[in-house]
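Write out this protein's structure.
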Amino acid sequence: MADVANYTIENNSGANVRIDLNSVFAAIQSLNSKNTDLATSQCVAGMPFLNTTTNILKIRNSTNGGFTEIGNIDTANLGLLPAGGGTMTGALLGHDGSTAAAPAFSFDTDTDLGLFRKQANIMGFSSAGTEQMIFDANGITLRSQNEIRFGDSDSSHYIAIKPPATVTANKTITLPSETGTLLTTASTINTSQLSGASVTIGSTSVALGGTATTLTGISELTVTTLNATNQNVSNIKNSSGGNQSTADQIYQGRAKAWVNFNGTNTTIRDDFGVTSIGDHGQGIYQVNFDSSFSNTNYAPVGFVHRNGSTGNKVLAHIDTLSQQNAASYRFMVSGTNNAANVGLVAIDVQYVFLSFFGDQ
């Protein structure tokens, strides 16, 4: 311990002056060492001091109002982190007021790249002086449509994930809790990877890569176009879910065949379920069906137009049933040239319309 009350050498006898000088030099030599901090009266600004109790080297601050610690003299480099790097035992604190343009932690030749405090509990990452990403309690948020990139084995190419240019509301993609490969509409799956796998439609299990000829257990199916050989359904609706009909109602209510033909030359203008029109004499026609009816109890409905002034026929109608067979229907059209319906004769007319209802 070597401290003095002051550094003043008082006028005195030679021996006493020598004692004062030795005391001052001892204090200077020992950096004013003492087991307690010096009194203010012993200090001046910039004065070094060693506390021998803590072995902490200090220096008097510029206002002479206290000491600033430098470090422990028994610790390498006084316990300070050398410029060449080292291990810190305490927290490393950055400047609170840093920005993306001047981040608190950056690099000597790239000062606009680094980390900064955006606001309370939010860390910002900047590049080229612009905020690119933040990290907070919600996770990592990339800014300005930035991508997440996954490089291939030699990092020559990558796959990136990024959002669209505009998102109207926040969206979350939750990954499944399983191991596998993410597929897209352009993905190709090896057949070996489908072995043993299946999907269930309604109550029907279909092996992946396989086909199913029958699907059961589907309570409701909405499709634009359905191609199937047989459809066993209870109700059929329109695209809006209305106008419900049962399969039986449709089967019994719709025409199984219809035709519009020219009776003067048996040319078919349009039809459904009709193969051809046979001409069996004046005014006698036979409609031949694509598919035969189940029996001869089907119901034909027909109408004809007279030929205007041709033949002066003022009345023309389907007059006589010749044959009603399962595969064909033969009939006669007759007309007269007087309103009293006298003198009906078989005639060929230009327009004949027929529809047929029944079981097939």
